[in-house]
Batch of 2 targets.
Target 1
Amino acid sequence: MAQQPYESKFPDTSGIYSYSKTENDTWQRLVGRQIAALRGLAVDAYFDGVEILKLDQPAVPQVADINAALGKAAGFGVEGVPALISPKRFYELLSERKFPVATFLRRPEDMDYLEEPDIFHEVFGHCPLLTNRAYTDFVQAFGKAAGSLGKGYSWHMFRLFWFTVEFGMIRTAEGLRAYGAGIVSSPSELEHAFSDASEKLDFDLQTALRTPYRIDIVQPVYFVIDSFEALPRILDCDIKAEIDRAKELGDLPPRFEPAKKDVA
């Protein structure tokens, strides 16, 4: 029997999203498993955010509670959205210091991997670092810059987002740590990121803009920053000119095999 597609949840008149016992149990299992795996591998600021947002709880958190806690911590917020929204709306929300949050949760049989972002990826992966002011300043600046550039620049801006917010790593006094949501929310990505099978590069804007990626594999390369304060400085440039230069130079050779096309 074909698996039913995931559907976004919608709040009731009080703004509450309803989750079943199975969904709450799945959340608890996901969080418990991943928190244990992240010890010594995720940046301290991430764990600070987990504590602030009280994510280690036996139920799927409510969007309104996450929004209130983020607002108090760093003047940021979240907004419940359908799983996929337009780039324009995505950029608008970030520029307004709001992060879009998908409201459905993966099924138990999809515990290890789900291609679509669900509330576990969005809240457990992204939201803890939205309590960090330097990080949120970068996210907001990214939204403003991407929104002002238009369609012809979206693909390269998504690469910048991919190699920082989604799959970024950071150098600390204790060693290399993960901060990207795609790493901290995925057991396989976490293991791969800290293995010798992946390449870790010091962050360089031009290299990041010219590096292709695939969404359906563990990443062959991760970019490393020295501090969260370095993130907003990435956009202290003429980003349009930088992307134009990246286009002129062309993409770097992919570090992965091409995706296999479906055969009819």
Target 2
Amino acid sequence: MTDYLDVSVVQIQSWLTRTPQLQGRRGASTMISAATAPDVVDKLLVPHSDLVKRNDEVGDVDGVVALQLLTPEPDAAKQVKNAVVAHLRAKLPTASLVVRKTSGKNYADAQLQTSEPDDEHWPAAVADWPVGRPCEWCHVQPADPVQQDRERKRLCRECVMRREAAGWAKSGTRVPRQEKELLIRLAPPPGKKVPDEFKDLAALEEERSLALVYADGNAVGRFISDLHRVGNKRGRKLLQRVAKEIDEATWTALVKAVEAISDADDHLLPVVPHLVGGDDVLVSVPARRAWRFVMTLQSTFAERIAAQASGAGAQLPTLSAGVVFHHYARPLHVMCDLAKTLLRRAKESVQGNEAAIAWQDVTRDGQTPTDRDPVRLADLLAKQADLSRLAERGNSAQQRLAELIRVNGVESEPLQTHLQRLGLGEVVSPFRDGPIELLDALGMVRWWR
């Protein structure tokens, strides 16, 4: 049996998106990449080299320090834990941390054996609030009396660190790991970079709106359990590297999705990656390209996992997603909270058994979560051509149809008369009996491309 120790940043999406400025998010992403980079962790472990080593069974996932203990002595685990937590506290002052100790024949087995992990939580530090001004970026910590950004907004200690770590994508300095890895894998033409500002990303389409896409794996634990339970040669071999394979499937899917929405005349890449790793993806893309992005992301992830797990006898994991369409100036942390709610609803709608998408258009639906049913990826792919035909009718025609449905109902005489007069019966007929209702379809094709 081998003992493992993981020290992880939790609630990472909320922490990354705490500041409304993209510079603050990019700086936080750079900080977390730097704090948990393999070479940094290796250097941190030098004084404890007889007690622990870095766990290379886990992929390079930002926000996770994965370790393998070399001795079962409890004091050794405590000594290493304190060193790592102190390091992360210094580099990421207000991030929440969790420490988990597990044991097993390998890392995947250790995760299965720990059915009720005894996690040790280290909540984010809370300011003993002084009389004075709060930070004008995060509004969480007290502002430093001297430090300001370019707009003369007063910043707290951590937001100063974010600003200094941010750099600029176009200059290629201090690029967050997600952006750097994406550029390496995409190999775009020289000079084509990730946008530095949300307004630059939004300007790739006329509407100047974005979509925040938050995707996460379905039934990953069940997949690992199946590999362990079936126990054939193929499954045992895959089990030893399952964390890396899932991470690679996520990256492969992201690259294919970005390629699918990229136009030759784009002067920037049509994506800002906020968080990528393991089975998590949090990105911003132009609103009109979001549906193609999500469909490609989910389909490619499934195809990659299927290829790697062929013959292993395991039920395969998939990706579900929450998608929020919004104006580029909306606060990112608010959109992230909504996307998280939608993602949870998408997962629950299929009980983790297949890929699904829950979506909301904040520009029309508002920020309060609606009761719209999520859509299964299989249904979305099956209706793709029908949605494209509906999208060809133009925005004004779509709005008129939606208004008639909301006021009179989908089976009403005014709607039927309107459809007959304009000869739209065949265009809307695929949405009469589900699985995608006509009103939902009209909302979807507003951002169809």
